């Protein structure tokens, strides 16, 4: 009886060991299948850079067909066949928002912030911000002669646009090449949601005073040593001025550990800007200390 029990336990243990090993191998196999290899990561990064660079050159129009073909010639052998659009346009920024597909073919989506010269009526031009109305040599000559705008003539004004494009890229042997010109696609980026803080208690006056002092130093670039908890990695910005602290909400008015602050700041040439800041607070020896500063609720 004892011998039978021994062999039963022995075979049972062996079965469980084999089963456990198979489960581990299966899990490891799934992880490996979903993991990105270093070569795949390099291919995706190469595709991103080529797509972004092509999108910028493709969307930059300066009125010179030769210049346009020369710039696109860095990506295509037959760039001389491409037609330059009639308008004048420059790229302010370009960001890769997604990469799909698998080696060697990738589809890269790039979001472009553009400034384009758009003809408008003189009345619309006068209503536009002065910085968006370029002054030409013709304008200078007319004003020098005491002339005024022709009320029937359209005036070019800079307008800002967001444009999303898809760029096909092919990667072979870690070399990325454009496989076609960018195609304009729908810009459905508006999917983000600003989280509400969830703090509904008004802060005490001593805490508001602390926040004013902290943010004043934070935006002007002063020393935060007396305001930070040990280990906090908050660095003063500098170059801005705190105009006002407009609202301070906390999770607990008596002993706050989380705070949502709405403040108004300003800088030379920038005017006023509203900021909503989330702070993680620690009370130590009767003093408030900042543990973290973030753009979303802690």
UniProtKB/TrEMBL annotation:
The protein, known as: Conjugative transposon protein TcpC
Listed InterPro entries: TcpC (IPR024735)
Pfam families, A to Z: TpcC
Domain of life according to the entry: Bacteria
Provenance organism: Moorella mulderi DSM 14980
UniProt xrefs under Gene3D superfamilies: 3.10.450.540
């Amino acid at each position: 009886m004892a011998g039978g029990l021994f062999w039963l336990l022995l075979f049972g243990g062996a079965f469980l060991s084999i089963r456990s090993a198979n489960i581990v191998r299966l899990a490891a196999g799934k992880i490996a299948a979903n993991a990105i290899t270093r070569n795949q990561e390099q291919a995706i990064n190469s595709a991103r850079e080529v797509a972004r660079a092509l999108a910028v050159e493709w969307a930059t129009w300066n009125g010179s067909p030769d210049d346009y073909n020369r710039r696109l010639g860095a990506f295509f052998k037959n760039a001389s066949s491409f037609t330059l659009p009639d308008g004048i346009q420059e790229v302010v920024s370009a960001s890769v928002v997604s990469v799909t597909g698998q080696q060697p073919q990738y589809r890269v989506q790039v979001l472009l912030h553009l400034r384009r010269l758009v003809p408008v009526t003189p009345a619309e031009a006068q209503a536009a911000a002065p910085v968006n109305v370029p002054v030409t040599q013709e304008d200078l000559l007319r004003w020098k002669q005491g002339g005024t705008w022709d009320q029937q003539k359209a005036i070019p004004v800079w307008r800002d646009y967001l444009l999303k494009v898809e760029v096909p890229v092919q990667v072979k042997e870690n070399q990325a090449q454009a496989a076609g010109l960018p195609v304009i696609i729908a810009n459905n980026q508006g999917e983000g949601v600003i989280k509400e803080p969830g703090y509904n208690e008004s802060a005490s006056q001593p805490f508001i005073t602390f926040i004013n002092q902290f943010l004043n130093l934070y935006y002007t670039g002063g020393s935060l040593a007396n305001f930070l908890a040990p280990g906090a990695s908050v660095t003063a910005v500098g170059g801005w001025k705190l105009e006002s602290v407009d609202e301070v909400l906390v999770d607990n008015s008596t002993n706050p550990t989380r705070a949502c602050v709405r403040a108004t700041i300003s800088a030379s040439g920038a005017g006023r800007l509203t900021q909503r800041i989330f702070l993680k607070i620690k009370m130590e020896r009767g003093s408030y200390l900042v543990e973290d500063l973030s753009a979303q609720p802690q």
